Structures are given as C-alpha cells and as structure tokens.
C-alpha cells in the first residue's frame, strides 16, 4: 500500500491511506485510529513520518488529537454545494443545523474605489459595511464582510442582519436575487481571524468573494468571507458542454 519508490512523499501516502479508510467508513467519527507506533510497524516507516501525516490531517480537520488519549476521527466537514445560489441560513437549516450570527460591526461608510464601482454607487453615495461571524450549532464557521448600496436597501437595521440578509431582501423588500459569481482561494488564519473563529493562527482558511446580483442585473452585494478550512469543503457541479467541439 505504501510505495517507498513513488515520487509521492511517504507522509502524503499515509495521509491518503487514512482518508480513504475514513471515506470508506472503516473508521467512523469518534473512532480512535492506531497509534504512531502501530502505524510505523504496520507500514515499516519511521514514527516521525507518521507524525507528520497525522499532524497534517489534524490541521486539515480530518483527525483530532487528544493529549494522553489518542487520535480520533473528527466530525465530517460541512459540504457546501455550489450548484445553486443559497444563503448561509438556508444552507445550515438544510443540514438540520442551527444558524447563528454574531454581529461584529454594522455601519454606513462613504463609497469609493472598486467596491463602489462594482456596486454601481455614484460618487458621494454611501454603502453598508457589515461584519458578521456565522455559526452552525453555535460553532463559528465563517467571518463575513458584506457591502451593499445604501440606496438599494435603505433602512436596513442591525436586527435584519442577525437573521437572514437574503430573507430580508426577498421577503421584506420584495426583490428577487438572481445570480452570483464567486472567487475561492486558500489562506491561513492571522491573529484576528484566529480569535474570531476560535482556531489556531496559521490554520487553513478558504477565502471567498461573492458578487450577487438581482434578477434585473442590479448589483446586490459584495461579500468577503473566510471559512474554516477544517470544517468546510465546497463541492462544485460541472456540466460538459456537448455542443463545443472538443477536438
Ligand atoms: C452566504 C453567502 C453570502 C450571503 C449570505 C447570506 C457564501 C460564500 N456567502 O454566506 O454572500 O450574504 O450567505 O446569508 O456563500 P443570510 O441570508 O443567512 O444572511
């Protein structure tokens, strides 16, 4: 199973072997996995190599190390499907989890620069800047900074964004949210993010920038979010375009 001649480093092969056992259900959430010594005997490799693989899987959120007890399979990551345009509240409710919001900041700022341009706010206009920590079953999952044109959603209050922003826009304002584009990139938590999300500095983060539009193409929001890399994974759906000539 472990190929010492493969160009893939051995610790990486161990990581893949452990993930495969979790995926196949051989090891389930809460199960204790073999010790470093047992792994090193099983695969005839050094304990240091095992430790590196396990440490990586701990920081990626697949395993949990409990000092003095052992290493255990962590809870499955939340999978967010990027097939339809949904809100955080809808995503969490759809999974039977309780959505929550901690409001860090809510203010109007004068609009300038690329954000103002993308939201099509004229010079001298104002925009809402909202910082929220989104949680699932009381566990912080993501930090979101949302920008909206004040003109478009005038009268928005703190109360409105404790709940669902999309719910407010659609139910209270009667607007129809149409589509969004999203950029994803990887990063690591700095001090401020580690404090708000309750993770270690240097822990993996997924940064997402979403531009949402109303059905009539009016820009609705620009949202910068940082999702915990140990708790989240994004699943993308793809259709092959059969009309293209693919060579
Ligand atoms: C999601 C969206 C965010 C949107 C929010 C509305 C991503 C990356 N971001 O968090 O753009 O503002 O949902 O959620 O999915 P709400 O209706 O629960 O406030």
TrEMBL record:
Record's signal peptide: none
MF (Gene Ontology): DNA binding; DNA-binding transcription factor activity
InterPro entries xref list: Bact_HTH_transcr_reg, Chorismate_lyase_/UTRA_dom_sf, Tscrpt_reg_HTH_GntR, UTRA, WH-like_DNA-bd_sf, WH_DNA-bd_sf
Key words, A-Z: DNA-binding, Transcription, Transcription regulation
UniProt keyword Kinase, yes or no: no
Domain HTH gntR-type: 8-76
Keyword DNA-binding appears in the UniProt entry: yes
A biological process term (GO) from this entry: negative regulation of DNA-templated transcription
PANTHER family according to UniProt: MANNOSYL-D-GLYCERATE TRANSPORT/METABOLISM SYSTEM REPRESSOR MNGR-RELATED, MANNOSYL-D-GLYCERATE TRANSPORT_METABOLISM SYSTEM REPRESSOR MNGR-RELATED
Protein name: Phosphonate metabolism transcriptional regulator PhnF
Organism, scientific name: Paludifilum halophilum
